Known about the structure:
The complex is a heterodimer of chains A (67) and B (540). Chain A is mainly α and 67 residues long. Chain A has three helices and no strands.
Amino acid sequence: xxxxxxxxxxxxxxxxxxxxxxxxxxxxxxxxxxxxxxxxxxxxxxxxxxxxxxxxxxxxxxxxxxx
Amino acid sequence: xxxxxxxxxxxxxxxxxxxxxxxxxxxxxxxxxxxxxxxxxxxxxxxxxxxxxxxxxxxxxxxxxxxxxxxxxxxxxxxxxxxxxxxxxxxxxxxxxxxxxxxxxxxxxxxxxxxxxxxxxxxxxxxxxxxxxxxxxxxxxxxxxxxxxxxxxxxxxxxxxxxxxxxxxxxxxxxxxxxxxxxxxxxxxxxxxxxxxxxxxxxxxxxxxxxxxxxxxxxxxxxxxxxxxxxxxxxxxxxxxxxxxxxxxxxxxxxxxxxxxxxxxxxxxxxxxxxxxxxxxxxxxxxxxxxxxxxxxxxxxxxxxxxxxxxxxxxxxxxxxxxxxxxxxxxxxxxxxxxxxxxxxxxxxxxxxxxxxxxxxxxxxxxxxxxxxxxxxxxxxxxxxxxxxxxxxxxxxxxxxxxxxxxxxxxxxxxxxxxxxxxxxxxxxxxxxxxxxxxxxxxxxxxxxxxxxxxxxxxxxxxxxxxxxxxxxxxxxxxxxxxxxxxxxxxxxxxxxxxxxxxxxxxxxxxxxxxxxxxxxxxxxxxxxxxxxxxxxxxx
Lengths: 67, 540
């Protein structure tokens, strides 16, 4: 099973974060919610592996890393 | 209005049973002459099991109701001797269009696989389906098969006495007592038999109402399935347009939960809705209007001693994906041969328990699929609507999102994985689709189709492998069907039954499901597999 990457993996994280904020710039709450949902679907499809997606869901729901 | 609704097909007439000194015992009594009860009756009578069908009505069901019949039930009807009539009358469709708000977001083509006798789906009003089944039942009766339809006969009490079931039947001329070795309750979602037996039926209610309108129109809509999410003419809700035979169109409009049903059903309220959808200048005539709500639920067990539930009486699903009548017909396909072997004393009564194992698996699959479609079509929370709309938005331009659009998934038959009747797969490299438990995929042969050569009995199907032409195991005949990859012009035999293997030997059940398969014939293995397939195997 492929393990979900939880180590820093994005080159220039400040830029990536800024891109995310910029995408939401000027959007209403419903528009932002819709954008987030589309983004999750696009990324989920890129990942493709349902095991990885399940691990990601666990982390998002607050799971702590196993020792 | 179609005359078919008014014609009594099996009017009440006095039966000799009513004048008998003591209650008459029948091997099988079926309650309910809908699609499921009729299919069960034909199946049993064709196999020589005497059957009496009781129904308080004497006509086909009113209104179109179930309108999509899937490939597997059509194949079952072929085995029952009336598939051709049903398919000829039905409308075959492959193309679907999906709309979101005011845009068409994508089209799909079912693109059915080549080399099957039957299409993926036909649309046909339930009343025609029932009419063909009644005609087939009458034809069998005329040929001397032991099948009787008793209209105007309402079952008012049911008691399982261990050795038999005792019934009371009410007729226009008073009531009489009747007995059955086994009783099949095919009496629908509101099953009176289930209530009389005090059995549970738990599940989930979906708080929504749908308006169904059957309209006759000579409009130039193509033979396609059109589905709208949140259309301008039905804001925030869904809509469906689907063609039926005779220029009748099924229109399905989601109305929401908090509505006045009586008011919504009045033509003066329905007609403006339809005009908004079809266009002001389209002339149409209303044939049938109904408002339905639905539930997804099933009984904990379908078999209760000598009373066995099939179809909606045992399980109910949302209409998305056409899994009601279709799964009910598949229930009867599973049950018929088992009941025959038990009544003939060739299989233990416990074989009937495998009906629960196999059809509960089928029902759970249907409930899961139709519940998922319902969640997508009628999102029940803000976030589920946000994701649903995101999928639809993306589907317009991106192929990846289209498989997530769920306006109802095609009903496909369950593969009975893990059934106690299956033997372990012993065909290395064999295709997964024909593994033990699977319904046999159809196949073009030099003459005709494979499925027409299977069914009603056990078959040993060999592909480039020697085996006896005929076996008899514990009084059960097994006939051989010899095929060869040398005659396989289309490659379908290799694709569907050989896979990586060069030879194969399949033991196929009377309901055309695979019981076991090997890479060569071995008498001891076939004998053990047959024992297992009739409930004489060791419990796994």
